[in-house]
Amino acid sequence: MLDFKPVSQGDLATLRRYYADCDYQLCEYSALVKYMWRCNLNSDWTEAAGCLIIRNDIGGKICFDYPIPGPQGDEDAALEHIEEWCLETGTPLEISVVPVAKAPRLLVRYPRFKLINNRSWWDYVYDAEALRTFAGRHYSGQRNHINKFRKLYPQAEWKVLGEDDGALIERFWDELDEAGAKQDEKAVKELRLSKEMLELRTLPFFFAGGFVLEGRLISIAMGEICGDTLHEHIEKALPDFEGVYPATVQAFAQAFATDGVRYINRQDDVDDKGLRTSKLQYRPVTLAQKYCFSVLNELDGIDAIPTLETDRLTLSALEEGDKPAYNALCLDDERNLFWGYDFREDWKGEPLKDYFLDVARRDFATKMAINFAVRLEGEFIGEVVLYRFDGKGHAELGCRIAPAYDGHGYGVEAFQRVAEWALYSLGLRRVVAKCHRPNEASYRMLSSCMRRVGEDETFYYFAKEV
Fold first, then answer.
1. Collapsing DSSP states into helix, strand and coil, what is residue 403?
2. Which of 169, 181, 250, 403 has its CA 20 to 30 A from that of 223?
3. Are residues 149 and 175 both part of a single domain?
4. Which of 97, 22, 25, 32 is nearest to 7 (CA)?
5. Are 129 and 242 members of one domain?
6. What is the DSSP string of 248-315?
7. Of the listed ranges 84-88, 91-95, 268-272, the one predicted with least confidence
8. Sequence-distant contacts of 418-421: CB under 8 A, at least 24 apart
């Protein structure tokens, strides 16, 4: 299973191996954003299938970035690793800030999902040459501001900020604080993080510069190149210098949007009206949309466990009256030797009288599994469980019958009925099952109603599909 570790400064070079050639154009697919906002995103990372996989924990909700492939990366294999991690940990699968170009792959991959495309998430992406020159009548306003800046402050010069500019930068932050920058909590935090990121300006994959006037730094901009896009992550200026912002935008583009850079991403507007107006005035070539795919499964379409019938059996939801028989089945270690799951792995010491029924009900409420009680003339004799929904139309099926009812074919009858319901009523594409190699009874049962599709040292594998 995937082994994640938190994003740290020491990981930046590794992250950049993937982000350097990443063509997604979104600001989230950059090393500086991942490091700068690590406490908000709680980002962890790992590598699998030649891809960088980022897992974020935002307010207690897990979501994954779309995989970023290296030179030999396999995106589909990386998605399979993410799906398997979610299955094993019982985590709902969510892939967020998905680039538009990658959405068709997920549309085909997942038959059911909830899609969010929030306008405030969209990034403003500009033609790099346009920001370098501000040519044409559309940019007359920006040119006028820059001309005024040059006229008012002819001695202002653009400077690439390096290792020896610490005192210059520190004075800039002090003056920005004194100038009364925005004091809301989010702005204060963003300013603090910007100061921290400028300390990384000497790393070879980041760029920083600003205008210097009479020994004072009056603006700062910082970013990195990902693919053919220069991402401008930080842009600050002292407010008393008219025209300094458009002059900084242009100078930043002229200094760093070189060597194959075609676009400049100036990030989103966080629903700030003034910021949105300003960003639109620079005439973006596109507003880069970001999709959030919350992957659903077939259980999301039903509110209650149905009642199914066979020639001899009834299959229905577990009830309070089933507790004694159900508990006995769940606690029968000999019977459950080949069940494949030991309740003690998750049991936290709750009273066992209610534990098993509570878990079954919770699993259905969270759409992780559906448990059918198998009834013979109204008496509970076993259960059939449909679980491990992978979001791609597949799920696994298991069945266990109480020892007193062995040898009558009840397991086969119940198992086959739920499999048919799953495929033809619930809408699954494929139902799978497995049995331990020494479990001859289970092997016979599965062979009678499913197709054997493989084996390994531990299991025989079976499938039934439409």
1. helix
2. 181
3. yes
4. 32
5. yes
6. HHHHHHHHHS-TT--EEE----TT-HHHHHHHHHT--SEEE-EEEEEE--GGGG-SSPPPEE-SSEEE
7. 268-272
8. 418/308, 418/315, 418/372, 418/384, 418/386, 419/449, 419/450, 419/464, 421/306, 421/308
Q: 155 and 22, same structural domain?
A: no
Domain boundary among 55, 89, 121: 121
Q: What is the pLDDT of residue 183?
A: 66
One domain for residues 10 and 87: yes
Angle between helix axes 244-256 and 140-152 (nearest 10 degrees) is: 100
Does some domain include residue 355? yes
DSSP assignments along 307-366, one per residue: PEE-SSEEEE---GGGHHHHHHHHH-TTGGGGTS--GGGT--S--HHHHHHHHHHHHHHT
Give the model's pLDDT for residue 369.
97
Contact 125, 280 (CB under 8 A): no
For position 439, which CATH number holds? 3.40.630.30
Phi-psi region of 55 (alpha: psi -120 to 50; beta: other; left: phi over 0): beta
Cβ-contact 405, 381 below 8 angstroms: yes
CA distance 77 to 67: 10
Q: Specify the amino acid at residue 366.
A: T
Contact (CB, 8 A) for 145 and 243:
yes
Least confident of 160-169, 176-185, 251-260: 176-185
Inside any domain, residue 92: yes
Per-residue tokens: 100: 């538009």
Number of domains in the chain: 3
The structure tokens listed for 336 are 């459950």
Q: What is the pLDDT of residues 342-388, one digit of tens each?
A: 899 889 999 999 999 999 999 999 999 999 999 999 999 999 999 99
Question: What's the pLDDT at 182?
Answer: 56
d(C-alpha 425, C-alpha 267), whole Å = 45
- The encoded tokens of residue 230 equal 């220069």
